[in-house]
Specification:
By secondary structure, chain A is mainly α. Chain A is about 80% helix and about 0% strand. Chain A contains 15 helices and two strands. By secondary structure, chain B is mainly α. The chains are: A mainly alpha, B mainly alpha.
Chain lengths: ~325, ~280
């Protein structure tokens, strides 16, 4: 069956391909001088094809990141001259209590959101790989929050949590005889809600990555284990999960890297508040730069962000590789 | 069908299904709620929020369409078209160069592109703001098109390169021997054959561009240049406390384009977004 398919695809090209092969050999043996004169033209051609993309990418991504590094050593408020002030921006940044709170909040968000997404994503993926019907419909349904803008999601949830007029969550709390809580303006709850919404928006993406990894596990290994009398629990904990360990480590890297850069939900839903309870590194960097026009300190925070996420990725990769080696 | 299914009894599978269904309902409920609520009459809106509308009422949509919403839609569409056309126009030839041309630096160039996925776009925001300010690009569509193309290119090129390198060389050799130029081969053989990956790149990038918030919030300060996500936040900020019906209708309308594309091309959207996440 496979053969049939293959030949059907290649058939229209067979004629040309055959002629082409003979000719190309002719040129390689007989036409070497001709090739050499064409060489300079050949060298330029790939650059003509990839040049525009390289130019666009370099000017948009590479130049600004280098500029950020440069700006972080200057004092600049948007108008007037740039004044060099060494590492003062960094000193000021770390002496700023709000920035330290933002780092703490961000670490909490990283831990909480990563944990929820890893555990929930993996469990759901395992459950999904164990049912026969409707897997596709369920996957499509799960993925919906990923394709809706953070702006829309935040507006929807701010209405769902609203006390006056009464949104759906306070309404349900009233129905259940509980005392209504203004989750978004309660400093005990706000960060937890931001964490939950961050996890809610992206968990299905990671669930699907785990699911495809589980479906890619070599069927013959699974069959062999079952023939040897391996039960469901052992099959998953001793065989399937260890076999997708590389994906689990990769997911951890993705999630930690992503949550360190979290921005939209906190910025749109709670604006960092109440007070500074949901302030994150990026939201504070954004406010410092574009709200207070302290571009120097803002650039220092931008550099901190880049270094922090690179360092986190490096550490997780290092530990992950060690663990993996122990496992396999 | 996975053989691990053999290790389970049917009741357990049904239990799994019930759990999965419950989670799926939680995932979808907020959108279901906002869409159904947008059809409620003002009397229905005053009742408990979890109730369904007693009849379908379109008045809030009339209200929503009279606001600046149409302007935001137009802006979002213009930016999306600009980004998608530029991404394909720049990304596809680069993917061809890196996969099909005997190119000494191909690997180094690819590594350079992949490096970009490690750079947080937020870390580039301040210089971008100052460049666009100096060049007079703020409050023009370019201020949103340029950064999204730049940051979208690495994944786009990666996907094109992988896809194109799987097209057998024998297909292009014939044309090359007949004297066809690389440009001819690219335009007439490789690019048309890469239709599937082009559709994937277009769909998931449309979702990203449609939902983009940060650049729009930073570079577009003039009211009439705002895109939907920012316009939505502003609109709800003004009207949200007062007029819930119009707010729900506005949110629903803003989600509609991505939902329609997702309804038709969900496979490509999921595939593209997960591939983008895995590579970043």
């Amino acid at each position: 069956m496979c053969n049939n398919k293959g030949s059907r695809i290649h058939f229209p090209a067979t004629n040309g391909r055959f002629r082409g092969r003979v000719c190309s050999r002719d040129i390689q043996t007989g036409g070497q001088t001709e090739l050499k004169t064409k060489k300079s033209k050949k060298k330029i051609a790939p650059w003509l094809f990839s040049g525009p993309a390289l130019l666009a990418y370099t000017s948009v991504v590479i130049v600004p990141i280098i500029c950020s590094l440069g700006f972080s050593f200057y004092d600049y408020s948007g108008v007037g001259k740039r004044v060099f002030n060494g590492i003062n921006n960094y000193v000021r940044m770390f002496r700023d209590d709000t920035f330290l709170i933002a780092i703490k909040n961000n670490l909490l968000l990283m831990a909480g959101s990563t944990a929820i997404q890893m555990v929930l994503g993996l469990v759901l993926a395992i459950l999904l790989s164990n049912i026969r019907k409707f897997t596709n419909v369920l996957r499509v349904a799960y993925f919906v929050p990923c394709i809706i803008s953070s702006a829309a999601i935040c507006q929807i949830f701010s209405k769902m949590f609203s006390i006056v007029p009464e949104g759906v969550i306070p309404a349900l709390m009233r129905l259940g005889g509980m005392e209504q809580i203004a989750f978004l303006s309660d400093s005990k709850w706000a960060l937890a809600i931001v964490i939950i919404l961050d996890a809610y928006k992206y968990v299905s993406m990671h669930m699907i990555i785990f699911y495809s990894a589980l479906m890619d596990v070599d069927e013959s290994v699974v069959e062999a284990a079952i023939v040897d009398g391996c039960g469901w629990w052992k099959l998953h904990t001793k065989i399937k999960i260890p076999m997708i360990m590389n994906i689990i480590v990769m997911e951890l890297v993705l999630l930690i890297n992503g949550t360190l850069k979290a921005f939209d939900i906190s910025y749109i839903l709670t604006k960092g508040g109440p007070g500074t309870t949901t302030e994150l590194v990026v939201t504070y960097m954004y406010k410092t730069s574009f709200g207070m026009a302290k571009f120097g300190v803002g650039s220092a925070m931008a550099v901190f962000l880049a270094v922090e996420s690179l360092a986190a990725v490096g550490i997780v990769r290092y530990i992950g590789n060690k663990l993996q080696r122990r496992y396999t | 069908m996975s053989s691990s299914l053999l290790t389970m009894r049917k009741p357990v599978r049904v239990l799994f299904f019930v759990v999965l269904l419950a989670v799926a309902l939680v995932q979808i409920y907020p959108f279901f709620w906002v869409i159904t609520s947008s059809f409620k009459t003002d009397a229905d809106l005053a009742k408990a929020a979890y109730l369904l509308p007693s009849k379908i009422y379109m008045g809030h949509y009339q209200q929503a369409l009279q606001s600046d919403l149409m302007r935001y839609f137009f802006n979002s569409f213009s930016v999306a078209v600009g980004v998608l056309v530029s991404l394909i126009a720049l990304g596809a030839p680069a993917g061809y160069a890196l996969s099909k041309m005997r190119f000494h630096y191909a690997e180094k160039v690819m590594t350079f592109f992949l490096l970009g996925m490690m750079i947080p776009s937020f870390a580039c925001l301040i210089p971008m703001f100052q460049f666009y300010n100096a060049l007079g690009l703020r409050n023009t569509y370019w201020a949103l098109i340029i950064p999204q193309v730049g940051f979208g290119l690495p994944v786009c090129i990666f996907l094109y390169k992988n896809f194109m390198s799987r097209i057998p060389d024998s297909l292009t050799d014939a044309a090359a021997i007949d004297g066809a130029s690389h440009w001819y081969i690219f335009m007439n053989i490789i690019f048309p054959m890469s239709k599937n990956i082009t559709v994937t790149i277009l769909t998931f990038n449309f979702v990203y561009v449609w939902n983009e918030f940060t650049y729009a919030n930073t570079f577009m300060s003039a009211g009439k240049m705002k895109t939907l996500p920012v316009g939505l936040s502003d609109f709800v900020g003004e009207m949200g406390g007062v007029d819930w019906g119009a707010t729900f209708a506005t949110i629903t309308l803003s989600m509609l384009p991505t939902l329609i594309i997702y309804a038709v091309l969900n496979k490509q959207v999921i595939e593209g977004m997960t591939a983008g996440a895995v590579k970043s």
